[in-house]
Amino acid sequence: MIETKKRIYVAYTGGTIGMRPSSHGYVPVSGFLSETLANMPEFHRPEMPDFTIQEYQSLIDSSDMSPHDWQRIADDISDNYAAYDGFIILHGTDTMAYTASALSFMLEDLDKPVIVTGSQIPLAELRSDGQVNLLNALYIAANYPIPEVSLYFNNRLFRGNRSRKVDADGFDAFGSPNYPELLRAGIDIELIAGKLSTESQKVMTVSPVNAQPIGVVTLYPGISAEVIRNTLQQPVKALILLSYGVGNAPQNPALLAQLKEAERNNIIVLNCTQCFSGKVNMSGYANGHVLREVGVVSGNDMTPEAALAKLHYLLSKNLPIDEIKRLLITNMRGELS
Ligand SMILES: NC(=O)C[C@H](N)C(=O)O
C-alpha cells in the first residue's frame, strides 16, 4: 500500500522569519518568504510533507498582534481543518507565547497538531535560525503529531500555553519554566511530555474571543494604591497582579482596600507570580493570605501570557463571574498544574 504524504498548512502572519532589511530596520515584505522557500531544496525533499503557504494580507511584526488577529488565525485553521493533517503558524517571536496561549484556549477539541514558530534572524539571511525551526516544525507536525497548540524553537517543542520568550537576542529564545518540553529534536527526535495523536471522533470548533479590558500591574517596592486604583478604572473587567514570590503583596491597607473594592465591583483580580518559575500559594505567608481574604484568585503556576489569554477567552463567553473564577483555577488545556 502506498502511504500518502501528510499535508501541512502553513499560515504566515509576519515576524522576523520572512522579513527583509530596510533603512529603518527589518520589515515584513509580501511574497518574500514563499520566494525564499521555493529556492531552498531541503524543504522539497521526498521525506518532507507536502505543504501550502498561506501568506496573510497584512504581514505584521508580532508586537502589533491583537485578539482580533488571534481570531483571524483560529478561523483560518478552522476553515482549512478538514483538508490538512497539521498546521504551522509562522509568527514573530515577541508575542508568540501570547498567541500560542490564546489559540490553545480558542481551539476547542483540537485533534491535530498546531505548531507556532518563527525565528530571530530572517530566513533569507546568513546564519538564520528560521530554516531549521520551520523545517523541523514541518517534519514534527507530519511525523510526531501532538494534538495540541505547541511552540517550536531551537530544537524544542513546548506546550504553547506554558511557553515564554526568555531571551531577546539569543537563539534559545523560549522556555517553559513550569512544564517539561513536549519533544526534543537532537540526533534523534525524543518525545518527552508530548502524547502523539490517536484515532479521534472529536469535532474541532473555535471559541470566539473579543478584546477585553484587562489590567496588568507588577508590584514593586513603594507601589502606591493609586497605581492599582487607576488601573481599576472602568471598564476594566480583570486585573492580573504580578506579585512577589509565592503570591505576596505589601500589607498596605490602602492597596488592599483597592483590591477589596475591585471585588465589590465584580472585577476579577488574578494573582500570578512575577518570578520566572514556581507557583502562587496564598497560604504560605501572611502577606499572601491577606490577598486571598480580599477575594484575589490564585493563578497557580500559569504564565502571565497564559493568564491573559485565558481571561480574554473566559470573559468573551459572558459567563457568570463565579463560573469564570472557577474556570480560572481549573486546568483546561494543561496550562496549570
Ligand atoms: N524575532 C522576531 O520575530 C521579533 C519581531 N519583532 C516580531 O515579533 O515580529
Automatic annotation (TrEMBL):
Give the residues the record marks as binding substrate: 62, 93-94
Q: Name one GO molecular function term.
A: asparaginase activity
Top enzyme class, one word, equals: hydrolase
Query: Which EC numbers characterise this protein's activity in its record?
Result: 3.5.1.1
**Coiled-coil portions:** none
Pfam families for the chain:
Asparaginase (PF00710), Asparaginase_C (PF17763)
Which interval of the chain is the signal sequence?
Answer: none
- Name all L-asparaginase N-terminal domain ranges: 7-191
Q: Which residues form the active site?
A: 16, 93
The record's family statement is: Belongs to the asparaginase 1 family.
Name this polypeptide is given: L-asparaginase 1
